[in-house]
Amino acid sequence: MTKSLPPPVPLPSPPAPQAGVSADVVLAGQPIPAIDRIKLFSDKQWEDFVLEWADSLRDQYGRVERCGGAGDMGRDVIATVKDGNGAWDNYQCKHYKESIKPTDVWIELGKLAFYTKRGDYTYPRRYYFIAPQGAGTKLSNLLKKPEDLRAGLIVNWDAYCRDAITSTQTVELDADLKAHIEGLDFSIFDATPPLRIIDGHSKTRWHVARFGGGLPPRPTPATPPIQPGDTETAFVRELLNAYSDHLKQPVKGVADLAQADDLSEHFGDSRLEFYSAESLRTFSRDTLPPGEFEKLQEEVHSGIRDEVRGDHADGYRRVVAVVKTARTLPLGGHALHGRMAVRDHGGICHQLANDGKVRWVK
């Protein structure tokens, strides 16, 4: 007798997409939270990320450098304590799929003991294990018990350190090395939670470039002082030369513009533009990796070159034409585009003049 088949069970329908999906989501998909994104990093990207995060600790450190790679002697990111008479902290990067365990750190402790005994470097003030999944419960508990950690290193030396510290020799735990280990301070070790690192990294200029999320609001540009400052000297001189060329008489200083209302107004507008662009430079320095603002300046410079070289009645007319061209340049591909104001376009022209890259009078 043939058994009857059970009635089909309807499969649940997939959830309906949320209404109002943004263009960004359609283009790039749903954003990945930073705590999940760090798990996708390569080993090198992880060390780069930790080095960037250390920049948020600049009030503590006078210098931060990366040593990761062959020959690092168990040091990945070194941070020298500011005014600390050579004291330093080590940030050891461990990019594993799981939280780190005691068996993951014996070799690092062994390297530290071996190389400090040999005199390759001094013993650090603090030593932090940095991993995207953090430290597991067993290691976290062990790090709180320095004497148990020391004992664990000694017990596990042959299994994890003897043949792994260096490829050039076997490192036996002889009496001298054991005595050195017994004299070391094992309370310096800790594991930094990944969320704390992400929070610190969010305050650095590398965060948006690595995780996205958009730039913060831009502060209001400073108002120019009544008298031009030292940072304006070159571009102000270029403007005065342009006015001299236009008036066909020397314009030696700002006071000489008192009888030329249009030029005096242009001079004031130009200084507003310059200070606006300077504030954009500062904003870029605080929120984007190094070199991004210089890329923007080069884009503007490339866009105005033909107008600078063009025929103009005088230097003043060249300034006006060049700044007008700069305002029409398509700069939408640059990271700062959403934070740029109209004045910034002209201000970058004046920055270029200030740097000697643009001359208004030939």
Strand order of the largest sheet: 1-2-3-4-5
Number of helices: 15
Beta content comes to 5-15%
The CATH C-level class name of the largest domain = Alpha Beta
The CATH topology of the largest domain is Trna Endonuclease, Chain: A, domain 1
Q: Give the beta-strand count.
A: 5
How far is it from the N-terminal to the C-terminal residue, by CA? 104 Å
Secondary-structure element order, N to C = HHHEEEHEHHHHEHHHHHHH
Structural class: alpha/beta
Contiguous uncertain segments of 5+ residues? none
- Taken from the alpha-carbon principal axes, the silhouette is elongated
Main sheet attributes: strand count, strand direction, barrel closure: 5 strands, mixed
User: Level of helix content?
Assistant: 40-55%
Number of domains: 2
Cα-based radius of gyration, to the nearest Å: 30 Å
Mean pLDDT comes to 91
Folded structure, characterized:
- The chain is an alpha/beta fold and 362 residues long.
- It folds into two domains: 35-211, Trna Endonuclease, Chain: A, domain 1; 230-354, no CATH class.
- It has helices at residues 23-28, 34-37, 43-54, 102-118, 137-143, 146-155, 157-160, 175-182, 194-201, 207-211, 233-247, 261-287, 292-309, 315-327, 342-354, and strands at residues 61-66, 77-81, 88-93, 126-130, 189-192.
- Helix 4 links the parallel strand 3 and strand 4.
- It starts with 22 loop residues before the first helix and ends in an 8-residue tail after the last helix.
